[in-house]
From TrEMBL:
<dbReference type="GO" id="GO:0005829">
    <property type="term" value="C:cytosol"/>
</dbReference>
<feature type="domain" description="Hydantoinase B/oxoprolinase">
    <location>
        <begin position="24"/>
        <end position="559"/>
    </location>
</feature>
<dbReference type="InterPro" id="IPR003692">
    <property type="entry name" value="Hydantoinase_B"/>
</dbReference>
<dbReference type="Pfam" id="PF02538">
    <property type="entry name" value="Hydantoinase_B"/>
</dbReference>
<dbReference type="GO" id="GO:0006749">
    <property type="term" value="P:glutathione metabolic process"/>
</dbReference>
<dbReference type="GO" id="GO:0017168">
    <property type="term" value="F:5-oxoprolinase (ATP-hydrolyzing) activity"/>
</dbReference>
<protein>
    <submittedName>
        <fullName>Hydantoinase B/oxoprolinase family protein</fullName>
    </submittedName>
</protein>
<dbReference type="InterPro" id="IPR045079">
    <property type="entry name" value="Oxoprolinase-like"/>
</dbReference>
Amino acid sequence: MNNAGLPTAYEHGNRLTAPGSTVDPILVEIVQGTLASVEMEVETAIARTSRSPMIRDAHDFRAGIHDRQLRKLTGRSYSALVHPIARDFPLDEMAEGDVFFHNDVYESEGGIGHLPDLCVTVPVFNGGEVVAFVQAFGHHDDIGGAVPGSMPSNASSVYEEGLAVPPIKLWDKGVPNKAALRIMTRNSRMPDSLAADLDAECSACLMGARRLSELFERYGRETIEAAFDTILDQTTETYRREILSKIPDGTYVWEDYAEHDGVDEPRLHTQRITLTKEPTGGPGPGDGGPRLVIDFTGTAPQAKGPINHCGDYVGGNFLKKWLAPILRNLADTPERMAELDVNEGIVPLIEMRFPDKGTLLTPIFPAPTNARTFVILRLLGVLAGVVAKAVDGKMPADQETIRYTGVYGKDRDGNDYLMREVLGGGSGGRYYADGEDTIHVVPDSRNLPTEFTESRFPFIVERLGLAVDSGGAGRYRGGLGYEKQIRMLKDANFMSIADRSILACWGVKGGKAGRSFSVTVDLDGPDEREVDALADSEPVKAGQVIRIRTTGGGGWGDPLERPYEDVERDLRWGKVSFDGARTAYGVVASGTKDEPVIDEAASDALRAELRAARPAEEPFFDRGPGYARLADGKTSADVDWM
């Protein structure tokens, strides 16, 4: 039974055809290409027909295609799970035109992390039977709760976070359930955009189901299902051969932290991974070769505030696919890494072991979850860090690439408005290249266009650019975060759900941590003040400027080994200041930004001086100065040393 008291014994994860079944490899390519095309068509339709800025403009939504065994077939991005739908609605009772809906975190089998993520699922039919599913889920503007945007930073239970809907049939044989829609829109502060977004998502998934039905009709069910099995088998074998083989057998431990939960005072909320690489010997899919065991024992108790994530359902199925993209960094080349999809084929290669109920990853209902990004994003870095220990640092340094900021109040016409944005940050330096600037962890997502926001909301965007010196110093520098400044034209309230305001994105193998997140209100004004990264309703007066600086990625390798020409380029591009070049890289430069001049002799002397001042041994990871504040003065954790 799950936390809602519902049965969880439903069929999932099995092959559709007998082991050893064959299918024309050209047809496999056709099927795989069609799946990717349909997924993209669904997402394009949602983007063009939705209404809210978060869906239409920021693109904070995803689509996914799954087979009748609930296995994810597409690999361009992560998706929610079909499992809660199959659990509550038997497949043989479904009909064409049905659309299922849910957003209840505790009944989602781990696929939905917080209530604003609304999920629609449409079955695909062939010969009157369900053969696949098309699904979409996205972050919507408002689903009720204590604050606009449904993400109260100090929530102590899910009841404060908005309307929770368990799996329901939202459309029945093509007929919308108007009563359910009315309940949801009545609970939203943005009812019109919510209704329009749901209509866009339902219609797009129904369209995708028709496209997939045509694929089954064209080639036959047996052939298509054999192609599905082949696609997933190929992923399993590719990751076993090209990725897992790069990790030496053994056990490795590392941990990282969220810094606050909105209720308690800031402290270290531990997320720990013990990674074991071990061979297997069985004959089945995923057996006969290496596998990874990811053990979360040592993860902190569930928080009072909303940073918990329900990860321990279906054997951690969602988390396996969420974390697996990190492993692609072990590919032979960046180009090969970009070619590797993450679909259900990686699931047999990973075993997850969860601690007992009552931790950040195994919360007990009704623990709040709206800021669960502090945990699931941190876990990406924890996995990268523990793998880095196994492969002598040949993994990227840390990145923290999502936080929600926004303003709300009355617009020029006196109507309520809500503007929220998911701003990215810098990615970590790599052993072969600098990190990327201002990336977003949600594929294809983006900041809101200035032209759109200024025409719709009562503020002016006075600056949107790179945050100079925010990337962690290293032989390969961390990517830069955003600096955004907006001037309010009317009194409003600022909101923020962000982490890494005390801690920082860690550097690795001599690389330094990036700069932390910060928000300043009334920049250069008489009431200038720093705002906490978790804020629901910080007042901002008309005329005041809000400056948002997002995190920079961690650096990789010794910054004193960064070539002078690379530092000169950073100065010319405005990514590093003259003072930053001196203090972080030991580079003495003069001249102007457009024509910097490096004094190599003085720089050589300064670098020698800085090297001599270093301690004899340094940890493998650099957490930045904020760590000591929360760790009783310690500058590193025991697990940071090789």
